[in-house]
Amino acid sequence: MSSLIRPLSVVTLACCANAAQALEITAGDYEPLPVGMNALLLYFQHAESSDFYQQGSKVSDRFKLRTDVSLLRYIHSIGLGENVVVEPQLILPYGHLKASGDAGTLGSTTGTGDLTLGAPVKWTLSTANKDIFSLAPYVYIPTGSYDRDDALNLGENRWKLLLQTAYIHHFNAKWALDTAADVTWFGHNDDYSSNSSTLKQTARYEYQTYLRYNFSPATQFAVGGGRIEGGRNRVDGVSLDDRTDTTYVRAMATHMLTQTVQMQVEVGRDIEVEQGFKERARLNLRLAKLF
Fold it and tell me: What is the pLDDT of residues 143-168, one digit of tens each?
């Protein structure tokens, strides 16, 4: 199976970068913060993969990748009107990627991911239970660790723009449905692989939804998932025919440890993959401090 390493390594780089820096939401993320409030969040994300797919067919069940990524996120809420806030924020990833099994020659890497700047605008609507609508632009700045000679990188050496919309429907005080959709546009990586090739990628789309239950004022549970589509790559004008088509599921619990400290635990996995790694297990932890 070692003969797979070279033809798959081109695809692997894109897959790893996306896995480390995808902008998934969790249930309740788009509830507005009170005006003037700050939030400092620390994430830890662990994921393991062993199956690798090309065009819907499994080509290896020992193409292993372990991803451990921490993210630091700062948010500040600014009032724009009676029912509108904007929440400027920054996200800085740091992590470790390690390949093994049939993918062992891809090696491992440790470093920072690309700095992300965002400014979600959130409207509280005059519906019966105060639904929320949000429009959120995010810019990925190519500041992360990147080496064209490495198959695995945390940084992508290119600019990205993500535009995300979200809607929260509050059925009542206990139940809510969080939905989000986004599109990511990619700049060119003009220093891709040891040949300094040019990597171009078409737009990628993601759709997410979660059903949320408020067990108490301090505790909530949610289940849901999402789907990622698009993002076909071209290297020096040659298509890799590697369009992403991935479906995943998630379950999470959130609890306020104190009035200003929140803990969230999330588990999940991929259930269908057309191209790239299929995550067999994912654990996300989040600690948030409000001030």
Answer: 999 999 999 999 999 999 999 999 99
Calpha distance 180→139 (Å, rounded) = 18
Task: Dig out the tokens for 286 from the structure.
Answer: 């989040």
Whole-model pTM? Answer: 0.92
CA–CA separation, 41 and 222 (whole Å): 19
Residue whose entry in the numeric block shows the structure tokens 């896995």: 19
CA atoms of 15 and 243, how far apart (whole Å): 11
Helix (H, G, I), strand (E, B), or coil: what is residue 105? helix
| Helix (H) or strand (E) segment spanning residue 45 | strand 38-54
Which tens digit of pLDDT belongs to each residue from 86-133? 999 999 999 999 999 988 988 999 999 999 999 999 999 999 999 999
The Cβ-side half-sphere exposure at 6, using a 13 Å CA radius, reads: 2
> CA 104, CA 197: separation in Å to the nearest integer?
24
Tokens representing residue 276 in the block: 């790239």
245 Cα distance to chain centroid: 15
Q: Is the dihedral of CA 138, 142, 145, 151 positive or negative?
A: positive
25 three-state secondary structure? coil
Instruction: Retrieve residue 12's tokens.
Output: 């692997």
Strand partners, 108: 98
In angstroms, rounded to a whole number, what is the distance separating the alpha carbons of residues 98 and 56?
24
Residues in the chain: 291
